[in-house]
Specification:
141 residues; alpha+beta; two-stranded antiparallel ribbon; 2 helices
């Protein structure tokens, strides 16, 4: 339809995915997940990788954006000394420690703010594009 609106729409979809990932990370700050072998392990934070989307664009070279993938952070968990906890490690050098997700809540909140601002900016761009198209139709019609 209108390429500028299509580009902004692709950004809205991408930022929505980013916000979903941030929300998942924040919701799982203290969570454990079950591995395929049945063991419990701390939740691993995720992050979104964007890439350009040449399928959405203009003849002048502007292109949209899409989510390339959602990756898992490969970081060491936070260990806390809690020997009476049911999930405490029972043997080895980390005996008595509980592994918690290594997710920085401040960084996640900043990422959420950036995603929200980008979402708002793209809504604004869509509104401007819509108004320009309406004005063009009024001039022509």
């Amino acid at each position: 339809m209108i390429p500028a609106i299509d580009i902004s729409t692709s950004a809205l979809v991408a930022q929505r995915t980013r916000m979903d990932v941030v929300s998942s990370n924040l919701a799982n700050l203290q969570s454990q997940t079950r591995l395929p072998n049945g063991e419990l392990a701390p939740y691993e934070g995720k992050f979104v990788i964007f890439e350009t989307d040449d399928a959405v664009g203009t003849k002048d070279g502007a292109v949209g954006v899409r989510v390339a993938r959602v990756d898992t952070e490969q970081v060491e968990p936070n260990y806390r000394w809690e020997p009476g906890h049911p999930l405490a490690i029972q043997e080895g050098p980390k005996k008595g420690y509980v592994a918690y997700p290594n997710i920085n809540m401040t960084a996640e909140m900043v990422d959420a703010l950036v995603a929200a601002r980008a979402y708002e900016a793209n809504l604004g761009a869509m509104e401007i594009s819509k108004n320009m198209a309406q004005q063009s139709l009024r001039i022509l019609g």
